[in-house]
Amino acid sequence: MNYVVFDLEWNQPSDGKTSRERDLLFEIIEIGAVKLDSEGNKIAEFSETIKPQVYNKLNFHIQKMLGIRMSDLKHSPTFPIVAKRFLKWCGDDVIFCTWGSQDLTELQRNISYYDMKPMSDGPIMFYNLQKIYADHIGGEAQAYNLESAVDNLGITKDIPFHRAYADAYYTAKIMAMMNKDCFYKGRSFDLYHLPLSEKEEIYDVIDSESLFVSKGYTDRSEITGNRKLMAMTCAKCKKRSLRPKVRWFSSNSKLYYGAAVCMVHGPIKCRLKLKHSDQGLVYIEKTMTYGTYDDIEEIKSRKKRLKEKTAKIAAEKKMAEYKES
After folding, report:
1. What is the distance between the alpha carbons of residues 300 and 257, in angstroms, rounded to a whole number?
2. In the CATH hierarchy, which fold is given to the domain comprising 2-189?
């Protein structure tokens, strides 16, 4: 098994979007990658620019950051050609690694736009090195850009940043310095393609947290009315359903919170997100985290504050309607 550490550069509209551009908001114009063996040694590299087919000019900020012009890309191959080369170069038995969570999704969106063969018919497990690095130093993933991580780790900056190969090169350098245990805890799932059936749904357990990702449904009522999907469970003892200490509540109908207690493994904080896929399906990501009874009290307080706020808004609205009448 090998690791493919890759990075993409893409163009996007500067102002208004045509209907064609809305179908591909981020058009990939460069792919760069480093292939590592199972021991983390570099065994190959990939770098190609791509001739745009959707946008006829480079976004000013993209042009400034990358230091290239549209004329520099006019003799490059088109995306389908480069993507086929890249995927063939990757091989079959690989784990993808990226800095952040967006690249794998955008690669698949571009593949879909050109009606190419999908990379997968379901979710793809990958390593998000930004998240792994944040866990390594005990911080929040969103707080660290690639260059700050390189500086913090004392990695020599021997090529310029902000080109696809260069960023893949530095990401691979960071990966080589991470403890192997970080990768076990830092695995992520790209959900451009959802699980096709209940048997293929994701149920991933890492230490004190479990992640469940459902298959796609055509309507949210198929989820909210499904007791099995909405159940609060203990991943450690495989119990299907626990009695809630705090029933699901939400302020926006997309993100829900709750809490339960397992008699064996203790308090569990619960979070459920309702999401939409690119294919127009509804699915859920449910995270169950083992915590303390103080966590449950905090969730109870949050629910109480939300209830009071909702009641206050309703009362003010009723009063306003009364005055108008």
Report:
1. 10
2. Nucleotidyltransferase; domain 5 (3.30.420)
283: phi then psi, degrees, rounded to nearest 5: -150, 170
Complete DSSP assignment for 129-175: HHHHHHHHHTS-GGG--HHHHHHHHT----S-SSSHHHHHHHHHHHH
**226-265 pLDDT per residue, tens:** 998 999 988 888 666 888 999 999 988 899 999 999 988 8
pTM higher than 0.85: yes
Token pair belonging to 83: 């993507």
Neighbours of 45 (CB within 10 A): 15
DSSP state letter for 214 = -
Residue ranges of alpha helices (H) inside 186-261 are 221-224, 227-230
Instruction: Identify the band that residue 123 occupies on the pLDDT scale cut at 50, 70 and 90.
Output: very high
Find residue 255's DSSP bridge partners: 273
Q: Which two tokens stand for residue 227?
A: 């007791």
Tokens of 137: 């130093």
End-to-end CA distance of the chain: 72
Name the E strands within the chain: 2-11, 27-36, 42-49, 94-98, 124-128, 187-190, 202-206, 209-213, 244-250, 255-262, 266-276, 282-290
What is the CATH architecture assignment of 197-309? 2-Layer Sandwich (3.30)
CB within 8 A of 144, min separation 6: which ones? 130, 133, 134, 152
